[in-house]
Design brief:
The protein has about 160 residues and is an alpha/beta fold. Helices cover about 45% and strands about 25% of the residues. The protein is built from five helices and six strands; from the N terminus they run ββαβαβαββαα.
């Protein structure tokens, strides 16, 4: 992950908070997915991602958000809220049809917990990274079939790399 990016996490009143500082990219998307899965396994089902300090997001990061939303949708009352996305990030989410998959809100409904901790970043090997990127892009297509045209070449390339790897 870029030294200028970090993900801060915490929970309060049963709500899990994540705050992205810097860029949401393929480098930190696995951290978000793993963290959410750990919290789900502990019984949490409501998540808020604060993008106030997020400069930009790549397609892998947004695909990971789609994947998280699908996991939460399978839970009773599972919910992902994305708050304080700047105009560019909102436009990216909307352009991929993700604003229909989870809630995108201008401001959080409650204040962030006062003490957020830096999330640990898993070290991924090249094969694991390719699989994570592939899964994220497949989730984008599941979120909106129109994304197939946008990411068809990426998916074909990654599948070939994984098969040959």
């Amino acid at each position: 992950m870029s030294k200028s990016s970090s993900i801060l996490v915490g929970s309060e009143n049963g709500i899990v908070w994540m705050k992205l500082k810097g860029r949401g990219t393929f480098e930190n998307s696995k951290c978000v997915k793993d963290f959410v899965q750990r919290m789900i396994s502990k019984g949490h089902n409501e998540f808020v991602l604060d993008l106030e300090k997020c400069e930009l997001m790549d397609s892998t990061f947004m695909g990971t958000l789609a994947s998280v939303a699908f996991s939460l949708r399978d839970l009773e009352r599972g919910l992902l809220r994305v708050v304080r996305a700047n105009t560019r990030n909102f436009s990216l989410l909307e352009g991929l049809g993700l604003d229909h998959l989870f809630q995108v809100e201008p401001e959080p409904f409650a204040p962030l917990p006062p003490a957020l901790q830096k999330a640990g970043m898993p070290g991924l090997g090249p094969e694991e990274q390719r699989i994570a990127i592939l899964e994220a892009h497949e989730a984008l297509i599941d979120a909106d079939p129109r994304n197939a045209v946008r990411f068809q070449d990426v998916i074909e390339y990654l599948r070939q790399e994984i098969t040959e790897g």
